[in-house]
Amino acid sequence: MDIATKLRRRWDALGNRCRRALLGAAGLVAIALGIIIYDRATAWLPRLVLDAPGDNIPLAFAPDSVTLATENEGRVKLWDTRDGRLVKTLENPSGRTIFHGRFTPDGKTFLAITYAPGANPIVVHVDILDVESGKSRASVATKFGGFHGLAVTEQGRVARVLVGDNTPARQVVDIDLASGRVLKDRTIDPPPPNPAPGGLGPMSPDGRFAASVLALASSTNPSKTEMILIWDLDSDREATRLPLPANTNLWRVAFVPGGRSLMSARTDGGLERLDLTADLRPMPPPRELGRHHGNYLPYELVFSADGGRLASGGVWRGGPGLSLEYLRVLGVWLTGRRNYEPPYELLIFNTVGGPPIGRLVNEGRAVFSPDGRSMATIMTDGPEGVAVIRDLPGK
Q1: Rounded to two decimals, what is the model's pTM?
Q2: Are 356 and 348 within 8 A, CB to CB?
Q3: Alpha helices of the chain — where are they, by DSSP H?
């Protein structure tokens, strides 16, 4: 009896129910593997992969648009993105976790926003690191644990940080970068109705304004009207309120660099741009830029320095029924990938409009180079610590 006959007899002996179960399982595995192969085959291929030990989370490009700073076990590592060479490591003697950062315009100073996990209470620190020596110059502690914005003003001489917690109150701190001395420290408590959720934030790139969403009606009222509150951080007063249509359901709002525009992200995944006049009056109607796929909730809005590019990150929030995301989860499990997180979607746009430049699945923490030619991200479901660099198409 040949092998084919033996296998056919064993298959017939399994029974209809068992055969259906095996065929269904094999089909799911084939679909999951097909999705993985398709994702890899159609991916926007990176130019460079920084596959170094530990998590290398992109923080910021230097003004030369070549050097990339990443967070690695509480330190800042500087990479040459032309060849992937490690240029220098900036020590952070406090050992706190770095979750945001930026260079000063001259590239000589790196500002690291840090916090100490497990501390009670957790507060944000601004660590001033000297790029040439690799040493810490100063560290300034704030009063709150939530970070909402960092700007460098006065031709690179002053840093302004906006922080707060789950209350309307916000702290604005101006720091002299040469000495680490606090120049101004004030607390802002916007008048009722209190901004929701979580008070003022984020801050405009020039450090002048902060924005928040106001829910003017009861949360139980389905026809509630929302407004965007803009606060002048220089004069510590309300600048304007921008009315929005009923049931807008905003989730995120951010200032577009290089002009008077706001980008908003709705709970349905839609992204809209609202242009403002010089005196901060709205120029309706809002223009829809694009929309996240399926059940992705917009999580972060990141712009290039000139405001011409937007990276909108969305986290999969689940949903009913069988979807490609569930099959990706199965595929990740089958391939034994490490460091798995919920599915993530990154959409890249030109902010003037048009279709997305690209879509990246399971990559996040995007940062743009100052010249707008490159972008860095980190894989959210691949091998631990892999950061990737991609070239952006011309505008």
Answers
A1: 0.82
A2: yes
A3: 3-13, 16-41, 324-335
